[in-house]
What we know:
By secondary structure, the chain is of the alpha/beta class. The chain contains 10 helices and 10 strands.
Amino acid sequence: MDNNKTLKxxxxxxxxxxxxxxxxxxxSINKGEIYGLIGPNGAGKTTVFNCITQFYRPDEGKVFFTKxxxxxxxxxxKKTHDIIKLGLVRTFQNVELIQELSxxxxxxxxAHIEFETGIIAQALxxxxxxxxxxxxxxxAINILKFLQLEDKINELSSGQPYGVLKKIELxxxxxxxxxxxxxxxxxxxxxxxxxxxxxxxxKAIREEYKCNVLLVEHDMRLVMDICDRIxxxxxxxxxxxxxxxxxxxxxxxxxxxxxxxx
Length: 262
Ligand SMILES: Nc1ncnc2c1ncn2[C@@H]1O[C@H](COP(=O)(O)OP(=O)(O)OP(=O)(O)O)[C@@H](O)[C@H]1O
């Protein structure tokens, strides 16, 4: 894989029963890109996600990922937990925060992967564990500041506006030093203002945390606004790939997707 790519999907296929949910799909994401994956309902977007993070094991194909140190690994067959350690994290459509914990604590819950000391040491609160916890707390506070939530650090997550919960979900991904974040319909359930803020936030994450973003999203304004390139799929196959302008003017995409949705 050439040096400029972070993620390269090659001839990916997976079928459920007789149905080919992803059918010989290939695309690649360049370093620093915000990349969009779009398609009508049932096109196979979530299945592509699940094949990248190895929640599903693809029937065929490869998923190459460039780690922080520049080396390339094929993710197929790896454990989801190990994939997070390699620097690839995802969010879920439904935000799942622990209601009884503060926003800060919710970020720390997501950071267990960062702990270098073992569970027993943590339980005994040995010096090293206490130090590590302090380091994580500082990191979490910095992320909350970046998310402009510093005044809410100790507030419970219960009762927070949906936009705040979504930010925390994003913040949790940042706790694990990602080189790539996959966002599953981040604008779902957000109002116009929250969606505009989200667009700015995703761009800021790219700048500040130097990570790539792969976005699956139905909100065309968000996709067209922030993506450098987009891949449109239908029936698990690639329809077109290109800049937002190219995708918007592509006839096949218009017929399959934009025509129906807009
Ligand atoms: N675990 C599964 N078992 C059987 N069929 C599945 C499974 N997961 C997905 N499918 C089927 O694969 C196809 C692609 O589904 P997928 O959820 O990936 O589409 P999508 O583009 O994410 O749709 P949406 O935009 O509605 O979320 C659909 O026909 C779906 O019913």
